[in-house]
Structures are given as structure tokens and as C-alpha cells.
Design goal:
Elements: H1 3-7, E1 14-17, H2 21-42, H3 47-70, H4 84-92, H5 104-125, H6 143-177, H7 183-189, E2 191-194, H8 206-235
Antiparallel strand pairs: 1-2
The chain binds protoporphyrin IX containing FE (HEM) (2 copies).
Length: about 240
């Protein structure tokens, strides 16, 4: 066989599993729980629902923390720690980036979203609405600090979160419609098309999924037990 024919498969487009099922479920459940947290305060004004949705966000964040070490290749934190050089190179020549996971700018935005979400949940746990509803950690916090956490939660964190998620959705739409990259398809099916064959695929076998289920159950049990214990203290 001639040399060009031998190397041709290396340069042919291929489908690579980039987002494993647990990461995709994490993403869409996060979208649901976050929307629930916002709708519950702005439309139905029900703090029970608000805290339930907030606890769901907390469970998902805890799960993502574990999955950042135990998940498929492209879901691991080690695969998206962007350096400044990489980010500048990506801004100068985005087309040269051929990896299936988060590009350096997307990686920064993912870290920012996760961090701001953690701050939103943490401040919510220490907030008070002055109308009979208190986050379960308020028992451990002075009145002055409850005011500060409530101020952050209701007046700063919510805007940061709206800004970052708005930017995230705008960036995804830009990639889909302007750059013709089917990113949404990848977050739905897990697969991304690449112009070459050399990318590593994320593990997404039955064992990985079972592991994710165990981690998720553990995170749910942890949050449930902690909230239950704190609420008993709050009521006492
Ligand atoms: C409440 C709104 C949203 C939040 C908080 C959010 C958050 C996130 C997070 C944390 C990731 C990183 C996934 C991971 O590695 O764990 C991500 C990735 C992604 N999200 Fe969202 N998301 C939101 C809405 C959406 C929507 C509406 C779409 C579709 C239009 C979308 C499409 C994507 C895609 C395609 C990726 C992968 C990006 C890449 O290829 O680098 N997201 N999102
Ligand atoms: C990511 C999850 C969360 C989001 C996005 C979120 C967002 C919000 C928003 C937008 C408000 C209304 C602010 C306003 O009136 O303009 C609010 C109020 C509030 N949230 Fe959350 N929240 C979350 C989690 C939590 C959690 C887990 C708790 C506690 C269990 C909590 C407790 C509160 C309290 C006590 C208020 C009333 C504050 C006030 O009256 O000024 N939140 N939250």
C-alpha cells in the first residue's frame, strides 16, 4: 500500500466520545436545578422550593468535584487547567485548537461558573429573608455576617451568575451558528466530530456509569444528612 493511503485514516474525520453520560446528566440537571432556584424566588416565591433546588445544585456540585478526579478523560479537572500561554494562543488562532474537550476560554468560564455557583449556594445557606426563612447555617453565623451573606446572595451573586451563564450560552450559540461546531449535539449525545483520529476518548462504560451512580448517591446522602441535622438544630 502506498504511503499516502497508509496515513490517510489519521487525517479522516472521526467521532470521539468527549462527554460521558454522568457529565451530560450533571450538566442538564444543573440547568434544571438552577432554573428552579431562580423561578422559585422570582415567580412562585416559595422558599421551600428555593432551598430544595439550591440543595440539588449543592449535590450536583459535590458530585462534579468527585467526577473531576474519577470521570472520563475530558471531564477530569486535569484536562482543563488552562495556562495563560494556551489561552493567548487560542485567542490568536482558535482554528489551531484541535482537542475535543473545553477550549482554554471555555475552561476559564467553566471554572468561573462552578466557583460562583459554590459561592451562591454557600451564601444561601447563611442567608435570611427576614420573613421567617433562614438558611440552615445561620445558627453558626453572627447577625452581622448573616446580613453580609444575604447581601452577597441576593444582590451580587445572583447577577454574577446571570452574567456568567448568559455569557456561556452566548458563547455556545456563537460556536454553533457562526463557527458551525455542533457543541450542543456533543453535550446531548457525548460525541464530537474531529478532523483527525488522534484524540483520546472518554471512558463511558457500564462500570464508569455505576461508579458515577454510587458517587451521586453518596453526595445526596451527605447533603440530606447534613441539612436534616442542621434543620433540627435550627428548630431547637
Ligand atoms: C443554567 C444555565 C447553564 C449552566 C449553569 C451551564 C453550565 C455548564 C458547565 C458547568 C459546563 C461544564 C461541563 C463540565 O465539564 O462539567 C457546561 C458545558 C457546556 N454547556 Fe452549559 N450550562 C448552562 C446552559 C447551557 C445551555 C442552555 C446550553 C445549550 C445551548 C449549554 C451548552 C453547553 C455545552 C455545549 C457545553 C460544553 C462546552 C464545551 O464544549 O467546552 N449550556 N455548561
Ligand atoms: C445556586 C443556587 C441558588 C441560587 C441561584 C439562588 C438565587 C437566589 C435569588 C435570585 C434570590 C432572590 C434575590 C432577590 O430577592 O432579588 C435568592 C434569595 C434567597 N435565597 Fe437563594 N439561591 C440559591 C440557593 C440557595 C440556598 C441553598 C439557600 C438556603 C437554603 C438559599 C436561601 C435564600 C434566601 C434566604 C433568600 C432570601 C434573601 C433575601 O430576602 O434577601 N438560596 N436566592
Amino acid at each position: 500500500m502506498s504511503a499516502p493511503l497508509l496515513i490517510a485514516p489519521l487525517f479522516m474525520p472521526s467521532f470521539v466520545k468527549v462527554w460521558d453520560l454522568p457529565t451530560r446528566l450533571f450538566h442538564w440537571l444543573l440547568v434544571l436545578s438552577l432554573s428552579g432556584s431562580l423561578l422559585s424566588v422570582f415567580y412562585i416565591q416559595n422558599m421551600e422550593w428555593h432551598s430544595l433546588c439550591g440543595y440539588s445544585v449543592l449535590i450536583l456540585l459535590l458530585f462534579r468535584l468527585f467526577w473531576g478526579f474519577a470521570g472520563g478523560h475530558w471531564s477530569r479537572f486535569s484536562s482543563f487547567i488552562p495556562s495563560v500561554q494556551q489561552s493567548l494562543a487560542y485567542i490568536r488562532q482558535p482554528a489551531a485548537w484541535q482537542q475535543p474537550g473545553h477550549n482554554p476560554l471555555a475552561a476559564w468560564s467553566v471554572w468561573a461558573i462552578l466557583l460562583v455557583l459554590m459561592c451562591q449556594v454557600a451564601s444561601g445557606l447563611c442567608a435570611d429573608d427576614d420573613a421567617g426563612f433562614s438558611g440552615p447555617l445561620t445558627v453558626f453565623v453572627s447577625n452581622r455576617n448573616v446580613e453580609i451573606f444575604t447581601f452577597y446572595h441576593a444582590d451580587i451573586g445572583k447577577w454574577l451568575l446571570c452574567f456568567l451563564t448568559g455569557l456561556h450560552i452566548a458563547a455556545v450559540l456563537f460556536h454553533i451558528f457562526y463557527k458551525r461546531q455542533p457543541l450542543l449535539h456533543a453535550m446531548l449525545t457525548g460525541f464530537r466530530q474531529l478532523p483527525h483520529h488522534s484524540a483520546i476518548a472518554s471512558d463511558d462504560n457500564a462500570w464508569q456509569r455505576l461508579k458515577a451512580l454510587w458517587i451521586f448517591a453518596l453526595c445526596t446522602a451527605l447533603v440530606y444528612a447534613a441539612v436534616h441535622w442542621l434543620q433540627t438544630r435550627l428548630a431547637a
